[in-house]
Amino acid sequence: MPGLGRAELRALSGGALFLAVWFFGGGFALGAQAPEKKKDLRVAARIGDQVVTLQEVEQALAVHLARLEEQKHHLMESKVEELIEGRLLGQEAKRRGFTVEALLKAEVFSKVPEVTDTEVMTFITQNRARLKGETADLRPKVREHLMNEKAVSLQRAYVAGLRQKTRVEVFLKEPEPTRVSVKVEGAFVKGPKDAPVTIVEFSDFQCPFCRTVVATVKEVMRQFAGQVKWVYRDFPLSSLHPQAHKAAEAARCAGEQGKFWEYHDLLFDSQAQWAETDFKRFADKLKLETKSFGLCLDSGKHQAAVQSDVDDGAGLGITGTPTFFINGRVLVGAQPLENFKKIIGAELRKKSD
């Protein structure tokens, strides 16, 4: 095949193999006779008379698959931007009779301002906890790092200027997001029942990242008042946080008296200080009926309900907290406010279309 390289030949070989499997493996039947029994294409494996369906596999990997789709799109976006920058620099260099390297030297590297001693020492002071070594040894490395940062900033500004002078159209579209079906029955909810956006959070009362993100979700609720409801589900990581499961039970006991969210806030606000012995004291602090709270907590009444949440979360592929599902779209970790707003804004626009 003239004109084809090894990569193309490999691709054609792969395609030929796929077609062979498809034709002779049941995807297409040659001849007039139809197969006696159509294969269930949703079966991933068979063990005796039992099957593992693709739906089971996808459900168990729901979080991971959603994140992979998101990562793939971000990688493609980054590569498109990188290629655009390269083409813009190449066009400008050709127009001026330069190489790209000479262009960057003239317009970027020669204009990078010197890094001052004050800047070096300020960086070292602000990042001392994560820097290893003596100050004298760190200075040249930090200076080089700061010089590189300034050069990158100047190059971005220069490329942005070139972009303004050239028609640049990006046709890469964000794929339809993967949505995961998450149960909310029996969970504690804040916000209107008919809100167009539902945030389901799987959280752990001893998780420091879960504590950090509480303020973010509250700000989301404030900025999108009436448009968002917040659903809390338990996912205590007992191997890391041995008291988290009992804390979740305690919050549910408080919920019986209409004070789940107040107890939720108290647990997170005092996370670094509390022990299991504090759970009844917190109930007293919130002016709950302490006898019934104590009976609820000591009996382990909600132990199975908390474990049910854990099982549901594990079935979705959750491995860490906090994990959020915004109208089924996965968001993992203590994400900044802007990341919540981006997804919620898109969901609201979709509802209004």
Describe the secondary-structure layout.
Blueprint: H1 6-24, E1 43-47, E2 50-53, H2 54-60, H3 62-96, H4 100-107, H5 117-126, H6 135-165, E3 188-190, E4 197-203, H7 208-223, E5 228-234, H8 244-256, H9 260-269, H10 279-285, H11 290-299, H12 303-315, E6 323-326, E7 329-332, H13 337-352
Parallel strand pairs: 4-5
Antiparallel strand pairs: 1-2, 3-5, 4-6, 6-7
Helix pairs in contact: 3-4, 5-6, 8-9, 8-12
- Within CATH, the superfamily of the largest domain carries the name Glutaredoxin
The helix/strand order is HEEHHHHHEEHEHHHHHEEH
What's the number of structural domains?
2
Strand share of the residues?
5-15%
The overall average pLDDT, rounded, is 88
* Low-confidence runs: 1-40
Order of strands in the sheet with most strands: 3-5-4-6-7
Named CATH architecture of the largest domain: 3-Layer(aba) Sandwich
Structural class: alpha+beta
- The amount of helix comes to 55-70%
* CATH-assigned fold name of the largest domain: Glutaredoxin
Anisotropy-based shape: globular
State the total count of DSSP E strands: 7
Annotation field: number of helices = 13
